[in-house]
Amino acid sequence: MKAKKTNRVLSVYPNQWGVGFAVFDTPDRLIDFGVAYVQPAQNDTSLDRIMKLITLHQPDVLLTRAITQEQNTVSKRIRTLLKRIALLAGAEKLKLREVSRTEVQEYFSEGDYCSKYDISQKLIERYPSLAPYEFPVRKRWKGEHHHVGIFDAVAMIRACFN
Fold first, then answer.
1. Domain of 83: which CATH number?
2. Which domain holds residue 29?
């Protein structure tokens, strides 16, 4: 009897700290997660880190963030990196799925606004192994915590496959 092949999903979320990532075999089975730190932030190094994750986990699907027209705060470096990730997925013959912030918001909100912190709390309930990476509520004048990329990567998978 042949074992059923699972669709392994690697979700990558590039940000100012490097690349937040999560790997799932099924929507309920979180295999690996973390932040591939890239400091100083450079696209070539970020792509190398993503390639190492692809080699290590052998995913069938690569998820990344989609940039919509109204997201004018996303840096040029991140926009360029996302285009290069798409090319990398094609070269590695992976299915590429881009998930927008709006899709994630709609999945996690119940009609109201849902912050990244709110989403992280819901994800910690579902995946207790994420609890050590919990981050505080962000004040307007503070930058994003370096663990946020982990939760962004996990949230994209939940929004995309449920």
1. 3.30.420.10
2. 9-160
CB atoms within 10 A of CB 73: 6
Among 145, 34, 17, which residue's Cα sits nearest to residue 81? 17
Say how many domains are in the chain.
1
Burial of 136 (0-12, 13-18, 19+ CB in 10 A): exposed
Looking at the domain assignment, is residue 71 inside a domain?
yes
Residue 153: inside a domain, yes or no? yes
pLDDT tens string, the chain, 162 residues long: the values are: 444 455 899 999 999 889 999 999 987 899 999 999 998 889 999 999 999 999 999 999 999 999 877 667 778 899 999 999 999 999 999 999 999 988 998 899 876 778 899 999 999 999 999 999 999 888 888 888 889 999 999 999 999 887
